[in-house]
Design goal:
Among the domains are: about 1-50 and about 90-135, Acyl-CoA Binding Protein (Up-down Bundle), CATH 1.20.80; about 140-230, PH-domain like (Roll). It contains six helices and seven strands, in the order H-H-H-H-H-E-E-E-E-E-E-E-H. The protein has helices at about 10-25, 45-50, 65-75, 75-110, 120-130, 210-225, and strands at about 140-145, 155-160, 165-170, 180, 185-190, 195-200, 205-210.
Length: about 270
């Protein structure tokens, strides 16, 4: 989770975590020690965040203009654009290597300060740093939250599944937008292969995700370990379609439950 960027903390702390990992793997610093690749120590997305955003040129709106651009792209103008893209990519790659070298140097300097620390101590210090995040112990999933089945603009969030609660985070933020214990969850299930539904008391949350099965299995695991009782199934479908609603997040993160457009399969709590 640290290497995938799912532990929101400062770069200084991420560098210290990397140094502790090196101390655990290789003991004290040595120029002869085998160095892992940087992506095995430090989240690559943090380095990529330092790169300048690519320029966004205005796309031609007129179909005739698009056609002329397409014809030009096959000739000299296309060669010019290809050369510009190659030069830009080379500059970005050079900048990325510089960032990587600077970060590795900072990690090594912190590693040198850990001389004499044994592997158990390094592991304990690593876990102690990670435990400072309130969401420690949760498994995070990238999801897009829809406020209703008809909502057009989902919000990208992290869905955190923990032993005691389910939480929703804005990516990179320490504190959750919302959190609810398992006793508040009435049911959950898959609306389809890429939509996960979670019913919290009288409210429904719809998540677009490619990890529907993984989320359901993890919820089942925690609920089984808690010996939770089977919740009631959702009410029967209403005859009228669900109204569209605009919900401002996070002031009202969980909208009230609305009738479904079609009955989704339900994953009840295990008995």
């Amino acid at each position: 989770m640290v290497l995938r960027g799912y532990v929101p903390t400062s770069e200084e702390t991420l560098q210290m975590l990397a140094a502790l990992r090196l101390q655990s793997l290789n003991s004290d610093f040595s120029t002869h020690a085998a160095f892992p690749r940087l992506e095995e120590l430090f989240p690559p997305r943090v380095l990529h965040a330092h790169l300048p955003a690519p320029p966004h040129g205005a796309a031609p709106r007129c179909r005739g203009a698009r056609l002329r651009l397409g014809l030009l792209a096959g000739g000299l103008w296309g060669q010019v654009l290809a050369k510009q893209r190659a030069e830009r990519d080379q500059r970005l790659w050079g900048r990325l290597r510089e960032e990587g070298a600077s970060t590795m140097a900072a990690i090594v300097e912190k590693w040198k300060l850990l001389q004499g620390m044994g592997r158990p101590e390094a592991m304990a210090a690593y876990v102690a740093l990670v435990r400072e995040w309130p969401g420690f112990g949760s498994t995070l999933f990238d999801v897009n939250l829809r406020a209703s089945p008809l909502e057009a603009a989902p919000q990208r969030l992290w869905l955190g599944i923990g032993a005691k609660a389910v939480s929703l985070y804005k990516p990179g933020e320490l504190e959750p937008l919302d959190s609810f214990g398992y006793s508040r969850i009435s049911s959950f299930g898959a609306s389809d292969s890429s939509t996960f539904r979670l019913s919290v008391e009288d409210r429904d949350l719809l998540f677009e995700t490619s990890q529907v099965d993984e989320i359901a299995q993890l919820l089942n695991t925690y609920l089984t370990s808690m010996g939770a009782q089977q919740p009631p199934r959702p009410q029967e479908l209403a005859t009228s379609p669900a109204p569209s609603a605009s919900v401002m997040l996070p002031q009202r993160l969980c909208p009230k439950a609305r009738p479904w457009l079609r009955q989704p399969p339900v994953g009840p709590f295990p008995s």
